Amino acid sequence: MFSVNELVVYPSQGVGKVERIEVQEIGGAKAEFYIVRILSNNVTLMVPVSNAHNVGLRPVCSLREGQNIFESLKDRSDFTGYTGQNWNRRYREYSEKLKSGDLSDVAYVLKELFLIGRDKELSFGERRLLEQAMSLVAMELAYAMGRDQENIREDICKLFEDVLPDAHGKSSTGR
User: Fold this and answer.
1) What tens digit of pLDDT does each residue of 68-110 get?
2) Backbone angles phi, psi at 44, to 5 degrees
């Protein structure tokens, strides 16, 4: 059970704060709800206490888990690329990973899209998924590590400097 003022993560929304726990009557039955305010956009969510785990509500990762995420972003050995997969299949796979609530899944999407971007220009949809993954990862790591979100973003971008386009639209790998 989460407590008031605890930071939590809601899948595909990001880090939120449990503002209160309240009882509401819905359909004649009383139920307890976490009232969670998402910190990035001030959206308020009502999450049934009894169903919180099933919807993926979880605590913010630990400092050690955050450091492991940075290490996983550096490791490119699991990069499969986009060979044999069409965009629709990748989009569905990546969307499911973003909704999973598992930070390592979200970081995987982030890494894949950065690396795909070294070989081809990302489509609008791919860029949107990349930005969503970056936002979710940077936000959670910032809270877990006690750092500024923008600094986390910069550190992540530095990990992929070799694949980011330069001023001429070419990645520094020459592709």
Assistant:
1) 999 999 988 877 766 656 778 888 999 999 999 899 999 999 9
2) -105, 130
